[in-house]
Write a structure and sequence with these properties.
Layout: H1 8-14, E1 21-22, E2 39-46, E3 49-63, E4 66-75, H2 80-88, E5 97-103, E6 108-117, E7 123-132, E8 137-140, E9 146-149, H3 158-171, E10 179-186, E11 189-203, E12 206-213, E13 224-233, E14 236-246, E15 253-260
Parallel strand pairs: 1-15
Antiparallel strand pairs: 2-3, 2-15, 3-4, 4-5, 5-6, 6-7, 7-8, 8-9, 10-11, 11-12, 12-13, 13-14, 14-15
């Protein structure tokens, strides 16, 4: 069985796209998402059941003499049927904390740590890597052994990828047919996340673009796709609500998400 360290937070984020951004926080610049005050609250909903998580820019830091920001994401434990579904999809292995150290000049991660944070403050480590871009490698942060070689120069973890998407949405042209994408590090593997703008409309005086991801990376046991909206408001384009569809053998599962930016 293919082992994947990600729990529901990774599906929240690999499904970046099942998100709703509340306009409680006024972003004057897409790079504001890299400021230490930026904090996101995330949730997934399915048949009235929910899973919750947070994603927060914690502080400025250094990794091997390189200036970075620490972005940390944490999730709540699941229970009942939703936990069963997540296990069935093979996207659960107990990790509840995901730390991404990101170079804000490039938007690319330098270090990525995945672990279960226990109640007593101790950690059970599941993944801890360093992005050695000079040598096109992903290595163990602890012993420098090679995990993957000949990796793509733009390789992201899912959390740096999410923030970089917001930056791309606001610095590149946006039109029907426009494509966005990046290479993605998944536990000891790489994948590709590609999306394209498929429609545009006006809602309440604001431009709303719909984007589609035909195939999410192979994190799931079953094929998955997603559609989501990006709203242009106040001069900024921000992702909004959408749906991830998982092709389950009996019937499709649609998962909706919500993301808020509190004051």
């Amino acid at each position: 069985m293919k082992s994947v360290v990600y729990k529901i937070a990774i599906s929240i984020s690999v499904i970046i796209l099942t998100l709703l951004i509340s306009q409680q926080l006024s972003l004057s610049n897409p790079l504001d998402v890299y400021k230490p005050v930026a904090k996101f609250s995330l949730s997934l909903k399915w048949w009235g059941m929910s899973a919750y998580g947070t994603m927060e820019v914690i502080r400025n830091d250094k990794v091997k003499e390189q200036d970075v920001i620490l972005v940390s994401s944490q999730t709540k434990e699941l229970s009942g049927l939703l936990r069963f579904i997540v296990k069935l999809l093979r996207i659960y292995k107990g990790s509840n904390t995901f730390d991404s150290y990101i170079d804000t000049k490039t938007g690319l991660p330098v270090r990525y740590e995945v672990y279960k944070l226990k109640d007593d403050g101790t950690k059970k480590l599941n993944d801890h890597v360093y992005f050695d871009r000079k040598n096109k490698r992903i290595t163990s942060y602890d012993d420098n052994s090679t995990i993957l070689s000949n990796v793509q120069p733009d390789i992201q973890d899912i959390f740096s990828g999410f923030l970089n998407l917001i930056r791309m949405f606001n610095t590149e042209d946006f039109y029907i047919g426009k494509q966005f994408g990046f290479n993605l590090y998944l536990y000891k593997e790489t994948g590709k996340l590609d999306m394209r703008v498929i429609s545009q409309k006006i809602v309440d005086g604001n431009k709303v673009y719909t984007l589609k991801v035909d195939k999410l990376p192979d994190v799931f046991k079953y094929p998955a796709s997603a559609t989501f909206d990006v709203v242009e408001k106040g001069g900024l384009k921000l992702p909004t609500k959408g749906t991830c569809t998982i092709d389950f053998p009996i019937s499709n599962i649609n998962i909706d998400g919500e993301l808020t930016l509190p004051n």
